[in-house]
Design goal:
With 279 residues, the protein is of the alpha+beta class. The protein is built from 10 helices and 11 strands. β3, α2 and β4 form a beta-alpha-beta unit. The chain starts with a strand and ends in a 6-residue tail after the last helix. The model has no long low-confidence stretch (mean pLDDT 96).
């Protein structure tokens, strides 16, 4: 460790890798949801975390959403399915006119520093989805995100499960766990549809997740399945993806309203509980 500005120890990539090793994290596919502010001083900021994962031969998967750059609104009249988590009324036009490409580098600011750092690495692989792509870095990156399509938004998570991967929440809650969106789909819900422009011009529907503000309601179900470890001052909750997915699917089937947020009028939650869009 080095001394951070203002005193205290700064964690290098090697330090973080050592803590990952002590936590038994290595040679695995891992979906990471994180808040950089949950870490103590990092010698090179988010690069210290990413470099540590590389040192541990972790194939790290992160959401790399890009709604701000590529969402089209309002949608064409013929692409407005019922029960789709939106009223289509009183819309304000939002369209950049540009089309997504996996190498574009665009990412929403609220994705956080670690996904942005991964997108800045020349060896990253990004899925093909204009609004809700996932990016991966590591030895299994291609197989992890290569199956993502505009209508199969959760494909990287399905591959993660098949490969016996992990999900880690680093300083964030269950409302950030994208695996629960896959659980909703496996429980029988159709993913919502939103809209983006294809490279050849026309606007197309794409599948996306819904409201996640109520995912904390699954805490009693999922908490016993995870373990907590400290990594560079950040509390990581690590879950086996397949086990967590199966538990969440069962819970949603038993009580569809368990994912509903506190907003009784939330269109996305109400329509999700009803089964999602009619397409």
């Amino acid at each position: 460790m080095t001394v951070a500005r203002g005193g205290g120890a700064a964690f290098s990539a090697e330090d973080v890798a050592g803590e990952l090793a002590r936590a038994g994290v290595g040679n695995v596919a891992l979906c990471l949801h994180s808040s950089l502010s949950s870490f103590r001083h990092l010698e090179d900021g988010p690069a210290s975390v990413v470099d540590a994962l590389v040192l541990r031969r972790v194939t790290v998967l992160v959401p790399a959403f890009s709604w701000d750059a590529f969402a089209v609104w309002p949608p064409p009249a013929h692409l407005r399915p019922d029960r789709n988590g939106t009223s289509y009324a009183g819309v304000i036009s939002q369209e950049t006119g540009s089309a997504f490409a996996p190498g574009c580098g665009e990412i929403d600011a609220d994705m956080g520093a670690i996904p942005k750092e991964i997108l800045g690495r020349s060896t990253h692989i990004r899925g093909d989805h204009p609004l809700c792509s996932f990016a991966a870095l590591g030895p299994g990156a291609v197989s992890l995100v290569g199956q993502q399509t505009w209508l199969d938004v959760h494909a990287p998570l399905a591959v993660l499960v098949e490969r016996g991967g992990l999900v880690a929440l680093a300083g964030v809650g269950l409302d950030r766990m994208t695996l629960i969106h896959l659980a909703e789909q496996r429980a029988g819900r159709t993913p919502f549809r939103r809209w983006a422009r294809a490279a050849d011009g026309p606007v197309q529907m794409v599948s996306v997740g819904g409201c996640s503000e109520g995912f904390g309601n699954l805490e009693p179900v999922l908490a016993p399945l995870g373990r907590s470890v400290m990594i560079a001052g950040s509390t990581w909750r690590i879950f086996p993806a397949a086990v967590a997915l199966a538990a969440a699917v069962s819970a949603i089937r038993a009580d569809p309203r368990i994912t509903h947020c506190a907003g009784l009028s939330c269109e996305r939650c109400n329509d999700a509980v009803s089964g999602g869009p009619i397409v």
